[in-house]
Design goal:
- The structure is a single chain.
- This protein has 160 residues and is an alpha/beta fold.
- Helices cover 19% and strands 32% of the residues.
- The protein has three helices and ten strands, in the order βαβαβββαβββββ.
- Strands 3-2-1-9-10 form a five-stranded mixed beta sheet, with helices on one face.
């Protein structure tokens, strides 16, 4: 099974649609916050997709959790925006929380920067941001998590 991992759309609905069109075969979408209004619109425009979401620090949706633990394939996955773990400064808080929660994979957003780490059996991944930010020097990006080989193959894709 493959999962599309998206974060920080911040109103960049055109780029979000570009990703959803490019990755048509992936029906499961994990959204890591900051752009829930874009996701609400995408749910209407792409009814064949299943969206699992957490809210970010810029989302004002009381009904959406800020953190969730999913079981995907045989792996426990923490999804969070990341602001509550101060991920812009360090991944240590997120790492400690993930270990304490007994998860195998921690997915986060908030930093707008791609990140991947595998250490001591824990995967930590940030897909970057969908939103174009010329000043940051980073291309808009998203992630894919693929379990088809029996283990998590997690990687970034840039929107060119």
């Amino acid at each position: 099974m493959k999962y599309l991992i998206i974060s920080d759309t911040h109103g960049s609905y055109t780029e979000l649609c570009c990703i959803l069109e490019t990755e048509k075969e992936i029906k499961e979408v994990i959204f890591l916050g900051d752009g829930l209004a874009d996701i609400q619109k995408a749910k209407l425009d792409y009814p064949d997709r299943n969206f699992t979401c957490v809210k970010g620090n810029c989302d004002l949706w009381d009904s959406v959790p800020s953190m969730n633990i999913l079981t995907l394939d045989k792996y426990k996955v923490l999804i969070t925006h990341g602001d509550g773990f101060d991920v812009k400064t360090s991944k240590l808080g997120l790492r400690r929380a993930a270990i304490g929660l007994g998860v195998d994979i921690a997915l986060y957003g908030h930093t707008h920067r791609q990140y991947y780490e595998y250490l001591d059996g824990l995967y930590i991944f940030c897909p970057g941001s969908v939103r174009p930010e010329a000043a940051s020097g980073f291309c808009p990006s998203y992630g894919i998590m693929d379990f088809s080989e029996g283990y998590p193959n997690i990687y970034n894709c840039e929107i060119i």
